[in-house]
Amino acid sequence: MSNKEKHSKDKATEDLLKAAEEVVNEAAEEQQAEETVEKEEPTEADKIQEMGEKLAELNDKYLRLYSEYENYRKRTNQEKADLLINGSREMMKAILPVIDDFERALAATEDEGVQLIYNKMMKILEQKGLKAMEVKGEKFDENLHEAITRIPAPEEAQKGLVMDVVEKGYYLNDKVLRYAKVVVAF
């Protein structure tokens, strides 16, 4: 091979290498241009959309937190009310036998002092929500009365009515505290 041929092959190789280098450089420039386009500042519409999404997300978090707080507040208020009522309920239940004893003492004696104390105590208990059931002569209701015994009815119209009260029943805040023990006509 002659020098000229060798030189022309080298030149052709060089030209190919330069062309390949130019193609690689162009590809690298295009890739850089694409990355630059991707890294460019977002448009106003993109910013608005992004802010809207963030606002929706924060609003959702706020609503969930607010709902949880409201549920917690309602639950604790209900628990406090239940504690007050149930605490009062147990105390009232414990006092009922004392009231029964007072009423038996009043029936056995005419002492005005005992009557005054009884009236004062009943007034205080009524202010706290205690109320006696008035059941004599009413129709028997198993939701309010406990039948101790049954007696034959003197008249047909008295069947199913409460004839006598063995132990008074009481309400506390319009809920049954103690069922009335009664005698029912059949």
Protein architecture, described:
The chain has 186 residues and is α+β, with helices and mostly antiparallel strands. The chain has 2 domains: 50-128, Hemagglutinin Ectodomain, Chain B; 129-186, Nucleotide Exchange Factor Grpe, Chain A, domain 2 (Roll). The protein is built from 3 helices and 6 strands; from the N terminus they run H-H-H-E-E-E-E-E-E. A 3-stranded antiparallel β-sheet has the order 1-4-5. Strands 2-6-3 form a 3-stranded mixed β-sheet, with no helix packed on it. Helix 2 (44-108) runs antiparallel to helix 3 (112-127). It is rod-shaped and about 140 Å long. The model has no long low-confidence stretch (mean pLDDT 86).
What can be said about this structure in brief?
The chain has 186 residues and is of the alpha+beta class. It has helices at residues 3-39, 44-108, 112-127, and strands at 130-132, 145-151, 162-167, 170-172, 175-178, 180-185.
